[in-house]
Amino acid sequence: MLSGMYLSCTFPFIPPAMKNLYVLCLLLMVHLASAQNALHFDGVDDYVNCGNNPSLQISGHLTLEAWIYANSWKPGAYQGNIINKEQNIPDYGYMLRTGDGGKINFNIGNGSWHEINTAALMSLNTWHHVAATYDGSKMRVYLDGVRVDSLSV
Question: Of 8, 18, 28, 31, which has fewest CB within 10 angstroms of its CB?
Answer without folding.
Answer: 8
